[in-house]
Design brief:
Blueprint lengths: L1 E3 L10 E5 L17 E2 L2 E2 H12 L4 E4 L3 H6 L3 E3 L8 H11 L4 E6 L7 H12 L6 E6 L2 E2 L3 E5 L3 H9 L5 H5 L4 E4 L4 H4 L5 H13 L14 E2 L1 H8 L4 E4 L3 H6 L6 E2 L5 H4 L9 E4 L4 H12 L4 E4 L2 H7 L12
Length: 322
């Protein structure tokens, strides 16, 4: 049951936990999300610092690579329910908590800060009769940026043992308070490689990221349209690997492999549209979304170089021009 959140300053003692045990399946096998860096800082450390700066003591990391997290200065505890999703991590955090109130954050929010943590924790502290405080941002609950009371654990455990794995649905069995006023950027997460790339580009390109510019629908053209634009001097970005580029590329295409885009994005012009190609359109779609989120004007080329060649367009072979 949801109640209205009162406004109060934060004074109560509380502890914190960062959920670092996720399998990061959507990130692929290339990168541990908790250890991924944005602005040079591991995401798990960003969340832990936000909790500490808001006053949390102690702050634990739940699950994940204990040795690697330990090198970041984080105290880890094993997840009681590994590979069972974030609800199991919340239960573990509440079991290890040494305070009545616990702030729990997912490890994948690169812009989370002490102000957002303090707002949520203060809302819970002010409402003695509720078990959980959850931000509402853009009309959506953000249960992985929440504050909990330890007494919620038995009911959450009952839901978990009954097969529930969704934190949001589990909250419905509690007394909880919706918290307005949390910035959208503070709860923006990076679940997929393109989102991590986008966050890194935003960090490198903008001082104050505006996540309202992020759109799931990205501009796209086909290879025929690219051929028309290429004749007029369009700026083409090829995000494949060097060997792919050498085997055949769009004439005049600039090579920046997708994995290097976060460090070489300043080579991409900001005063004109950029047409992004890869082999078939998958990597270029990720790059397009990331670039647009960082303030560039990027357009994906559907079909990619494969489609370009199949359509009989001219192709250049050989290494990247020096």
């Amino acid at each position: 049951m949801c109640t209205a959140a009162p406004t109060v300053s934060l004074s109560a003692r509380f502890s914190g936990a960062v959920l670092t045990g996720g399998a990061s399946r959507r990130m692929g096998h290339h990168e541990d999300k908790a250890l991924s860096r944005v602005r040079g800082r591991p995401l798990a450390a960003v969340a832990a610092e936000a909790l500490r700066a808001a006053g949390a003591d102690p702050v634990l990391a739940v699950g994940g690579d204990a040795a690697a997290l330990g090198r970041l200065g984080l105290v880890t505890v094993p997840d009681d329910h590994p590979h069972a999703g974030p609800l199991g991590g919340v239960l573990t955090a509440l079991r290890h908590a040494t305070t009545d109130v616990v702030g729990v954050l997912a490890c994948d929010m690169p812009w989370v800060d002490a102000a957002s943590v303090g707002t949520v924790v203060a809302a819970l502290v002010a409402a003695d009769d509720v078990d959980c405080a959850v931000p509402v941002v853009g009309g959506h609950l953000q249960p992985l940026h929440a504050a909990w009371r330890r007494r919620a654990r038995p009911r959450l455990t009952a839901a978990f043992e009954g097969g529930e794995r969704s934190v949001q649905r589990a909250i419905e069995g509690l007394e909880w308070v919706a918290v307005p006023g949390v910035r959208r950027a503070a709860v923006a997460d990076v679940d997929e490689p393109c989102e991590l790339l986008r966050a890194r580009l935003v960090a490198g390109a903008l001082d104050a990221p505006d996540w309202r510019t992020m759109s799931e629908v990205q501009p796209e053209i086909d290879v025929q349209h690219l051929a028309e634009l290429q004749e007029k001097g369009a700026w083409v970005l090829d995000v494949r690997q060097p060997d792919e580029y050498e085997a055949g590329h769009v004439p005049g295409a600039h090579l920046i492999p997708l994995g290097e885009l976060t460090t070489r994005h300043t080579e991409v012009p900001t005063d004109q549209e950029v047409y992004v190609v890869c082999h078939g359109g998958g990597r270029s779609a990720a790059a397009t979304e990331a670039l647009n989120g960082a303030g560039y004007r990027a357009v994906n080329v559907a079909g990619g170089t494969q489609g370009w060649i199949a359509a009989g367009n001219p192709v250049v072979t050989g290494p990247v021009p020096s």
